[in-house]
Amino acid sequence: MENNKGDRFKILMVEDDLELAEILAENLNRHGIDVVNYPLPSTALEALERGEFDGMILDLSLPEMDGLELLQKIRQFSPIPIIISSARGELEDKIEAFKREADDYLPKPYHIQELVWRLRRLIGRVRQKETKSPNRSQNEGDFFIGEGEILYRGEPLPLTFGEFQILSKLIKNRGRLIPKEELILGWESNLKSVEVLISRIRKKIPKECIETIRGIGYKFVCK
Question: Rounded CA gap, 215 and 222, in Å?
Answer without folding.
Answer: 21
